[in-house]
Amino acid sequence: MVKITPFEVERWMDRYETTPGVINIAETCCASISVDDLISLNTDKSAGSPLQLSKKLTYGDILGSEVLRQRVASLLNRDLNHYSPDLKPLNAENVIITQGAIAANFLVFYTLVGPGDHVISVYPTYQQLYSVPESLGAEVSLWKLKAENGYVPDVDELEGLVKANTKLLVLNNPNNPTGATIPTPTLQSILDFCSSRNITILSDEVYSPLFHSLPVSSSSSSTSTAPPSILSLSPSGTEKTCITISTGSTSKALALAGLRLGWIASRSTSLLRAVASARDYTAISVSQLDDQVASYALGPTVLPALLERNTDLARTNLALLTEFVEGKYSKVCSWVRPTAGTTALVQFRDLSKGGVLVDDAAFVLDVLDKTRVLFMPGSPCFGLGTEFKGCVRIGYACETEVLRRGLELLGQYVEEHLI
Known about the structure:
- By secondary structure, the chain is of the alpha/beta class.
- It has helices spanning about 10-15, 35-40, 65-75, 80-85, 100-110, 130-135, 160, 185-195, 270-280, 290-295, 305-330, 360-370, 380, 400-415, and strands at about 25, 95-100, 120-125, 140-145, 165-170, 200-205, 245-250, 260-265, 335, 345-350, 355, 375, 375, 390-395.
- The longest helix is centred in the last third of the chain and has 26 residues, at about 305-330.
């Protein structure tokens, strides 16, 4: 029997997010939108509905419609000409549609790793990215991200982690739970390292391209330092190459979690054939209705406005959270300020007890009980119960008024119990 480690953050969310009257600042998606909202964002006012209501609901295209797969490819190609103009643009043949990024990641692991293989995963990250390969029999080493480095991986540490049987390196960019971004030079160094050792790279890019708070490039007052997809980079002068894989979805950066639609993209046709073969055992196809709405959302007359809406929301809300953490409650809170995505890892201290770190699990439950404000504990959900003590993950890209009210009540709790 396969040993399945409990997926702590999902267990916590499932257990508490339906608490009556909950003020949910644990959710990690941009505030969700409706189909009507999507239509209102469309700059082509003559466009029809996203849903083709007269279309027969067959299984549809097994790997996803060509329109949707091409639009995912276009999303991933966004920085290709800047970083790797000699690389051929991705097209529909490079993309497989899945039931969310969680299914995409699972299929990659299910296809690639098993007993005798070694996997390196960044940490902290979404637990699936290290627990699933472990459940499949692989040995997993954690590439620990450090607050003092801004939670950016130190490539020099890879030499001490890699083994003769290392098959896969797992990235998460932007990172959940820290909101940190792996910059392009670091991504390039990782790619060059793996290329020289024939190690495949899986980059979970589910929060991309929500790079909302990066520093502006020194070479231009208007150009940000947002990294590209891993698929838009190529090795620097190495003879060997490695397979690179990107996974993503409509849930986080696109505010459409209810579609349950994600993707796997790669330039490796052999990898995609193997994934498609494995996928036959888990899904025949995705819902045609989901496919249609996702195609509409990723279309050229909708996507720019949708991303602008979500980016503005994240920036506005991060400013509120920054004032809480770095302003009024700076003696209680500490963090590395996020640069992207929708999540922040915030550490709390109890000044009434000499500044000791809070017991984050007990803290989360007590705040929920007394205020109905919900966020996630860092140690059980992201630290294997031993690390990130006193930390909580806050999802700040909810509706602004929800975040404002949640922080107001959390502030009252802090003043009554931690100061």
